[in-house]
């Protein structure tokens, strides 16, 4: 059994029958009252984000999660299909379980979080940064580089990302999958 002293960022806990991942946490101490532990939680099996406060020392119920490497294959009527890199077993997952489905490329390696109690996939995490090809972008005007002006560009997955004016069609760029923002041009 774990208590509030064991809370850490990224931990997945069971709360009111649902699973939540700890995004941020802290402790409030006052002179008269007992210490309180608070956490911002993001739903793993639902789309809710909540804040929860416990008395210091209260029990929490962490869920043991296994992270496995899978490869994205394709999307069809059953959902997004992934293959286990070790056993070559295939699974189909719904879009709401994937943290950034607009950035999935075929043959891309992702991490699938699996609940060890039920052996069911809980979510799919893409790498923090990926390299993609710009398939369409308006040409930038010469001399428009004095300010940090951005323009929309379509990447190979079909998503649209705002990029600086000097990025052209056919170039490789690195993007952050968590924020969807341009990071740098890749040579």
Give a written overview of the molecule:
By secondary structure, this protein is an all-beta fold. It folds into 3 domains: 2-62, SH3 type barrels (Roll); 65-125, Nucleic acid-binding proteins (OB fold (Dihydrolipoamide Acetyltransferase, E2P), Beta Barrel), CATH 2.40.50; 129-186, Nucleic acid-binding proteins (OB fold (Dihydrolipoamide Acetyltransferase, E2P), Beta Barrel), CATH 2.40.50.140. The chain is 0% helix and 55% strand. It has no helices and 16 strands. It has strands at residues 2-3, 12-15, 18-28, 36-43, 49-55, 59-62, 65-76, 79-84, 90-93, 109-115, 120-125, 129-137, 150-155, 160-164, 172-176, 181-186. The strands form 3 sheets. It has a 6-stranded antiparallel sheet with strand order 1-6-2-3-4-5, with no helix packed on it. The protein has a 5-stranded antiparallel sheet with strand order 9-8-7-10-11, with no helix packed on it. A hairpin with a 5-residue loop joins strand 8 and strand 9 (90-93). The mean pLDDT is 89.
């Amino acid at each position: 059994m774990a208590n509030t002293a064991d809370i850490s960022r990224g931990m997945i806990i069971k709360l009111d029958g649902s699973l939540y991942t700890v995004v941020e946490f802290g402790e409030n101490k006052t002179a008269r009252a007992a210490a309180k532990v608070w956490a911002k939680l993001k739903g793993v099996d639902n789309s809710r984000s909540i804040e929860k406060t416990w008395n210091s020392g209260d029990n929490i119920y962490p869920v043991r999660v296994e992270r496995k490497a899978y490869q994205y294959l394709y999307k069809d009527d059953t959902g997004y299909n992934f293959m286990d890199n070790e056993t070559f077993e295939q699974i189909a997952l719904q879009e709401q379980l994937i943290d950034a489905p607009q950035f999935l490329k075929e043959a891309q390696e992702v991490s699938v979080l699996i609940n060890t109690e039920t052996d069911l996939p809980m979510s799919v995490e893409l790498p923090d940064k990926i390299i993609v090809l710009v398939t369409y972008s308006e040409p930038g005007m010469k001399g428009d580089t004095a300010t940090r002006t951005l323009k929309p560009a379509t990447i190979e997955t079909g998503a649209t990302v705002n990029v600086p004016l000097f990025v052209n069609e056919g170039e490789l760029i690195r993007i952050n999958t968590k924020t969807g923002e341009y990071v740098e041009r890749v040579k």
